[in-house]
Amino acid sequence: MCMNKWVIANKLDKLKFARQKSSYCYFFASASLTSPELCDARLSWTKNGVFTTVVDDFFDTGDLKRN
């Protein structure tokens, strides 16, 4: 899948604290944007979801270390 290549190209798979949710994010984008011509929108939505998950996990991990 192209999203897995994107995750690897951006080295998001190397982050130990981050959950890998690319398939999960793509499923939700596909369920909402069903038209074939919206392929680019689905990929953009998925990338945004993956990046948001990584950032969220980064701050969740940081909060655990402070306590």
UniProtKB/TrEMBL annotation:
| InterPro entries in UniProt | Isoprenoid_synthase_dom_sf, Terpene_synthase-like, Terpene_synthase_metal-bd
The Terpene synthase metal-binding domain extends over 13-62
Q: Which GO terms describe its biological process?
A: terpenoid biosynthetic process
Q: Which UniProt keywords apply?
A: Lyase, Magnesium, Metal-binding
Cofactor(s) listed in the protein's UniProt record? Mg(2+)
A GO term, aspect molecular function? terpene synthase activity
Top-level taxon of origin: Eukaryota
The cross-references to Pfam families, in alphabetical order and at most eight, read: Terpene_synth_C
Range of residues in the leader sequence: none
Show the stretches that span the lipid bilayer. Answer: none
Would you tell me the protein name for this molecule? Answer: Terpene synthase metal-binding domain-containing protein
Q: In which organism is this protein found? A: Cucumis sativus (Cucumber)
